[in-house]
Amino acid sequence: MAAKSCGPDLLDWVGTDISASIFHLLDHPADLVRAAAVSRPWRRFGEQFSPSSPMAIDSLYHRRLPEFHPFTAVIENNLSKSLCLRLCPEVATVAAVAEVTRSASPPAVPVSESERDFRIYSNLAGAVVSAPRNHDVAIFTHCIGASSTDQFPKETMEHTLDEDYIVNFRPSYWSSGGSDSPDEPESLTYRLNHDICIVDEIKVQPFEAYFQRGDPIYSAKAVRFRMGHYKLPRGSESFVTHKDENKMVNADKNYMWTYTSPEYPMLQENVLQSFKLPRPVLCIGGVVMIELLGGVQKQKADDRYYICICSAQVKGRSLSPVFMFDISDHEGYSILKYLPDAKEDMKLDDTKESLEWLSLIGRYNKMNQIAVVNALMGPLFMNEYDVDDVSDDDFFE
pLDDT tens-digit profile of 335-347? Predict the structure, then answer.
């Protein structure tokens, strides 16, 4: 027979203030789950949350929480937001959070603002630390602008999105304007494919001018990275085009930078150089600037310093469509929006894609069988309806 536990719970005995102080020291969402092993009030919470899947906590948080003190202390002391700030200090620029659902009617049991915030920040923290679904995915989409371009559009920064060194029988690269000083900085500003992304790594490849004597490599002394968002309203952004260099958008006053990396030395080598960030960075707003801090190579024709880049990549993963953001004021502070219904849409899309893929493989296997029969026994004629009438089970035959 199991022995009955008696006496007050450990956290009840310690008290809410000290309990909250202890939980403020946790640095991983899964640590909150491990607390369930020693605390009865946390056990039910721990059993329903999977550390590897932050989406699992929604069903619990949408219900009204029991009146046990330690859990209430966690909510009232904003422990989930505190944890998010330690994981991603960029969250400090978020002025407010909001939860957006499809349901037009209010929930049967009202949810307090502190419970809502706890749910949103807990899901965000879980998304930051969880394993990415698609690792090492390039998330550049648009070129916003370069600090200078030597020969536009021949040497436009749009060439840095090409992975090939030669495009249409021409070298593909961006070149800065010439400078008399080796310390003159340059920059390339890009737009990511979504407003909210986790960035782990940035890769940059200097250009080797094989058509010049000595094959000089126009690398930078060092690189640094900034991330943030455009301050002006959504839809007012402009990008580099074949006819427009888009210089006006590069002023720092147009952006709020929420993260600035350390400086990394760049090698004067014609290779794709990887710069791993010290931690995963939450890019709120989807803008990344690559700062190229000084040149090392002079061009013999005019004795001026140039920096040339042939490829640039940002590696990470998107948190959209589950998370989105809007600019809240002219200072550029943002509102973080959480869309829990988008998770179900993603699950349905994954299921649909899996079924379509299985059906395609089944059709391929059936065509293979027909080809084998034709080779062994002569032509076997089938109409299109015979081929189309293939079930997903054929994949497993």
Answer: 888 898 876 655 5
